[in-house]
């Protein structure tokens, strides 16, 4: 079945997420469209999907490679009744949901990399970008943007990323149905999101740590010109990274790119 608005509507019928779908052959960014729709009053669970993005967005103003016919580029409008202070936890919640979903295809090989990467075999397969709008009343809405490499082949990836990125197709050796993967992804978010709203971050945090294999390892965290190193002790109740210096001192890191240090970097 083709990956289009009608097939997506049929596949996601009856779900809270995906009750309304806006499908595009090509857009600059699904997050931009979802943000505009949310500002116009689109309800929670509205989903924007594109076959191709001309200016796909990642964290820290980076681009996300978004060719047609291969992957999933989607943005979901959520309206959680939460404080803006804890809204960044939504990124970690989404990471758990994506990891749970693609574990169906790559069992035992999916890991989470703080703060927003999902990996298979320690190569990035998915990026998550959460953007929010606030008001005096709190969070108006959160746009949960997800870019998941499904069927892109290694030789189609930008040469600069071939050693650090992958796709479900590359890892499984088969071409997957994007409709099926999208359905698994939505089902997983529909499990994790209500749990986060109802129970808070504590359970999601435990699930995130279960997927993460960086705990206890030496990390290098880069944010703009700032570089911090230390042993990853976990994440705190806010979702911040906890770094230890080996002398019982703990630092909270709220932003940056974390990577496990190689022996040559220690």
CA-atom Rg in angstroms: 18 Å
- The string of secondary-structure elements, in order, is HEHEEHEEEEHHHEEEEE
Helix content: 25-40%
Which band does the percent of strand residues land in?
Answer: 25-35%
Can you walk through the features of this model?
By secondary structure, this protein is an alpha+beta fold. The protein has two domains: 5-211, Bira Bifunctional Protein, Domain 2 (BirA Bifunctional Protein, domain 2, 2-Layer Sandwich); 218-265, SH3 type barrels (Roll). Helices cover 26% and strands 28% of the residues. It has six helices and twelve strands. The protein has helices at 5-11, 30-39, 89-102, 168-172, 178-199, 201-211, and strands spanning 21-24, 47-50, 72-78, 110-113, 117-120, 123-135, 138-148, 218-223, 226-235, 241-244, 250-253, 257-260. A seven-stranded mixed beta sheet has the order 1-2-3-7-6-5-4, with helices on both faces. A five-stranded antiparallel beta sheet has the order 11-10-9-8-12, with no helix packed on it. The radius of gyration is 18 Å and the shape is globular. The N and C termini lie far apart (51 Å).
């Amino acid at each position: 079945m083709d990956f289009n608005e009608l097939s997506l509507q049929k596949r996601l019928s009856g779900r809270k997420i995906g009750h309304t779908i806006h499908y595009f052959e090509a857009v600059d960014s699904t997050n931009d469209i979802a943000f505009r729709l949310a500002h116009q009053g689109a309800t929670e669970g509205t989903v924007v999907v594109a076959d191709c993005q001309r200016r796909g967005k990642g964290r820290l103003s980076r681009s996300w490679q978004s060719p047609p016919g291969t992957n999933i580029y989607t943005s979901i409008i959520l309206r959680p009744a939460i404080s803006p202070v804890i809204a960044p936890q939504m990124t970690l919640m989404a990471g758990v949901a994506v990891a749970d979903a693609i574990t169906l295809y790559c069992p035992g090989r999916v890991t989470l990399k703080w703060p927003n990467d999902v990996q298979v075999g320690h190569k990035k397969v998915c990026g998550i970008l959460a953007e929010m709008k606030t008001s005096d009343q709190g969070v108006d809405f959160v746009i949960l943007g997800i870019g998941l490499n499904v069927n892109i082949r290694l030789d189609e990836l930008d040469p600069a990323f071939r050693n650090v990125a992958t796709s479900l197709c590359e890892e499984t050796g088969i071409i997957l149905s994007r409709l099926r993967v999208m359905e698994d992804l939505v089902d997983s978010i529909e499990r994790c999101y209500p749990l986060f709203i109802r129970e808070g971050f504590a359970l999601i945090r435990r699930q995130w740590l279960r997927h993460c294999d960086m705990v206890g390892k030496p990390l290098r965290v880069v944010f703009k010109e700032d570089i911090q190193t230390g042993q990853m002790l976990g994440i705190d109740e806010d979702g911040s990274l906890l770094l230890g210096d080996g002398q019982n001192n703990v630092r909270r890191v709220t932003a940056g790119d974390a990577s496990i240090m190689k022996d040559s970097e220690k």
